[in-house]
Design a protein that fits this description.
This protein has 217 residues and is mainly α. 59% of the residues lie in helices and 8% in strands.
Length: 217
């Protein structure tokens, strides 16, 4: 079973990773299930084979169901890889399709995204006929609950015109510090009760700045 949830790295990105592993070894353990299937670290494992590295850090995850393995793989990619907004949306979409019975909040907690982001993407999938419009969902406690409609949330999101949203995106892309991005977040939250897409872009930029600051140390 192949649990690779994202496309292969670009060749340039792959070459940089290979050079780093050649110099320092594998820094992040490669994860397997009990059958030896790779849950996380497909590129690292491929590079180890190419470089003849047999002694590398690894973690064996046992007792996980198939949905849990896919969720685990997606969660690790969401947290670690530098993903575009569209790639992050694709991971959320895949999770909703795999576990449509789960509540938006539960999926959001699994992947580390906002509840409103999951709600927005689920609504798009329902509209396109890719998932059923269920009136109930399964909560974290395993109980069945009535699914709340997010029409009001989407209406609030629609209050932003294309020009306004593009202006926000321009501010996000030009920000050079976490302080600037946090100021943008405060302004967005004051402007509307739900601006999940803009907030998601801001969170991505903050994580990027944090990673860059760590790499420069």
């Amino acid at each position: 079973m192949n649990y690779q949830v994202m496309p292969d790295m670009a060749q340039e990105e792959y070459d940089v990773l290979k050079e780093d592993i050649a110099e320092r070894g594998v820094m992040v353990p490669i994860e397997f299930d009990e059958q030896g299937n790779v849950l996380d670290g497909h590129h690292r494992l491929k590079i180890c084979v190419e470089l003849g590295i047999e002694d590398y850090p690894k973690i064996i995850r046992t007792g996980m169901s198939e949905p849990e393995k896919w969720t685990h793989a997606r969660k690790l990619n969401m947290a670690r890889r530098h993903l575009t907004r569209e790639q992050r949306r694709e991971l959320v979409q895949a999770q909703i399709k795999d576990t449509p019975e789960l509540s938006d909040r539960q999926i959001a907690n699994m992947l580390g995204v906002s509840n409103s982001t999951v709600s927005l993407i689920r609504s798009e999938l329902i509209e396109n006929g890719q998932v059923c419009d269920s009136h109930t969902s399964i909560g974290a406690d395993g109980k069945e609950y009535k699914r709340h409609s997010d029409t009001e949330t989407l209406d609030k999101y629609a209050l932003f015109t294309d020009d306004e949203y593009n202006a926000v995106r321009e501010r996000i892309s030009s920000a050079n510090s976490i302080a600037e991005l946090e100021e943008i977040i405060r302004g967005l939250r004051e402007a509307s009760a739900d601006v999940s897409e803009a907030l998601l872009e801001t969170e991505i930029k903050i994580n990027e700045l944090i990673r860059n600051s760590k790499n420069s140390v």
